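Fold it.
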Amino acid sequence: MLVVEDEPLIALMLEDTLEEHGWHVSSVAMNEADADSYLSKESPDLAVLDVKLGGGTSARLARVCSDRQIATVFVTGLGAEDLPPECSGRPVLQKPFSPEDLLAALKAA
């Protein structure tokens, strides 16, 4: 699993929660470039993407994941009206979220 989250504490919480519940996190990327580097070498089954990355969004990464048939879960502090179209039809977790909500979203992906 790939986790892409630009806030270090949230990235750590995601990684810890996922691994505590039996998921294998193969990479945590803090930005789009790190995610691209990982995806150029690996093909995870699942990606957890923060919608807002730095000054932009993870929309392009979402398209890459979709093209490669990598299931995607989005996490965000944005309201539903501000989500990019790439989030449509995929699980979206509003921050803050519980571990139970995260696990349910992963199963839905």
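Strands lie at 2-4, 27-29, 46-50, 52-53, 56-57, 71-76, 92-94.
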